[in-house]
Amino acid sequence: MLSRTDLSLVLMVAIWGTNFSVLKFAFREVPQQPFNAVRVALAAVIFVVAMAVVQRRARRGATHSRLLFTHAPLDRHDLWALIAIGLVGHFLYQLLFVGGVARTSVANASLILGATPVCVALASAALGRDRVRPMHWFGAAVSAAGIWTVVGSGADFGGEHLRGDLMVLGSVACWTVYTVGAGPLLTRHSPLYLTGVSMAIGATPYLLVTLPEVLQVDWTAVSAATWVALVFSALFALCLSYVIWYGAVMKIGMAHTSIYSNLVPIAAMVVATLWLAEPLTGRKLIGAALVLGGVALTRLRFQIATPAPE
Hints:
disordered C terminus, mainly alpha
């Protein structure tokens, strides 16, 4: 039986899987970095407004979920940690992720991101944050085999997607640091606060770096469909999904949460095939089946290891 946290993660998977095609669609009209700069800025504004509303209600005595609010003060150590994960998890991650998606296929990008659970589990285990069981590693290995089936055999130095694949791989490293680095902060601060503050910190240098490109775009000529894509991606793929991710990390741990990122390729390939008419080859189907099988094995192990209370 899936818990409420599991169901919210399934929603996150559907949003992130759709977001790959949303970005590819929008990049046909607006260059990737200017589009993403406006997207990240909009998401940061939404977070700031949400945090202000929640804190104002809390001062008036309203109660909120731990997902949205805590009373813990922000000390110097927390501030430096937020600056670090903001720069890595939003500034560097967005530069690499969006640049990579623009230079490779949806299937390649989404399947490379399937390496996230392995990276997060390794880092978490090394730091003693999570106990990673043998079945988790077995499931992760099966998923990794699926990723290699789709991407690895075609990634040579002459490949047209190689640069994009490497950039997406770099974004996986950034996301791993972002997830693991936030672990101690989540014991004191809410996912809403943590995500909102770190995004505002990372969005600032991102906007400064991309500002010349942003100003070159004639935004008045951008179609309504692209504006809808931008708002969807900011509101759902950044705001809602990031809070779901950190809320799940807080409740069920990093290793368990990261497993669900392996389901994103399945959703991404389905949407890309139906919307962008990307070819769905036999090799991609085999890889997707391996990824899905690896997730199922790991999920089964967690169910056995952590049975629901009577």
